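To fix ideas, we close by showing one paired sequence and structure record:
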Amino acid sequence: MTVGASIFLIALGAILRYAVTATVAGIDIQVVGLILMIAGVLGLIIGLFMLRDRRSTPPPRY
């Protein structure tokens, strides 16, 4: 997951968690927002670690 997609998930989750007051039968929108925020944070952490590892690895010699 890219950094941009992770930030998008965090923003979308925050909107669903804190700004939407609508109700849907069978779905708790606030819980869906929380799940999206957690997925975005985990994706951001993993993406940043992968980006750091990619930068610290020297290029291959041919």
